[in-house]
Task: inverse folding
């Protein structure tokens, strides 16, 4: 009850009697059918997978090697949904710089030194002649993915990119497969897991004039699911005309094997 009270207080800090909030939406996250597991009953796991969900509904992943052997991850045989986590594309970035040096003669100063006056001096007063030597330098950076990575004994690896799980396109679940070896690549095992959205609820805020009353939308949300804040993993989104506020209870999803 104390936890629910704290979360309710958080919600109220985001609300006022009349705001430009358009809607509130909520969903919780749990293992998808076929991927249910009780990680707490697995003793001495070889591998752990930590998945973190961000506000853009993309995931980042960290793998922990619990063994005393070097762990090999084959990214060409590891997947998020149906896409391999190995990216064969090569991205190229170039940047250029230019520097110059040389000598010049200010013609205006020369006309003054020679005693020239009148229109001729006025015409040439801002002119200069001379030569300069320029040096151009271009730096090209290639970003190349590697198909095989190694994790030292008792070490961990975080992939340096995020992965789109396609929830923005209407999908309600995603799956991850990590191909790993603890015998230096002689044989591989798969850590398979999957998650899904559940308890999806959304309410539009009642409108009066140009104001939207989010308190009413939150009351409807809490009436429909009084325990919504007690789920292990959930995302609450409050949308305005051009902004959104999020509350992610515990964005970390965990599996081991």
Result:
């Amino acid at each position: 009850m104390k936890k629910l009270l704290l979360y309710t207080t958080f919600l109220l800090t985001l609300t006022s009697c009349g705001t430009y909030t358009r809607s509130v939406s909520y969903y919780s996250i749990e293992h998808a059918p076929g991927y249910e597991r009780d990680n707490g009953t697995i003793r001495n796991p070889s591998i752990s997978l930590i998945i973190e969900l961000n506000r853009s509904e993309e995931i980042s992943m960290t793998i922990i090697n619990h063994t005393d052997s070097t762990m090999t991850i084959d990214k060409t045989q590891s997947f998020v949904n149906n896409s391999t986590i190995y990216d064969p594309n090569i991205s190229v970035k170039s940047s250029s710089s230019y520097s110059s040096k040389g000598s010049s003669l200010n013609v205006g100063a020369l006309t003054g030194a020679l005693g020239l006056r009148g229109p001729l001096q006025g015409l040439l007063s801002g002119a200069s002649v001379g030569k300069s030597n320029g040096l151009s330098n271009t730096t090209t950076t290639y970003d190349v993915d590697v198909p095989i990575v190694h994790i030292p004994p008792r070490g961990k690896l975080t992939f340096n990119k995020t992965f789109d799980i396609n929830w923005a396109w209407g999908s309600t679940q995603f799956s991850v497969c990590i191909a790993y070896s603890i015998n230096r690549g002689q044989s591989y095992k798969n850590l398979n897991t999957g998650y899904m959205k559940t308890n999806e609820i959304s309410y539009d805020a009642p409108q009066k004039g140009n104001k939207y009353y989010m308190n009413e939308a939150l009351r409807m949300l809490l009436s429909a699911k009084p325990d919504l804040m007690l789920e292990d993993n959930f995302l609450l989104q409050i949308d305005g005309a051009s902004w959104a506020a999020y509350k992610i209870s515990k964005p970390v999803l965990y599996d081991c094997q």
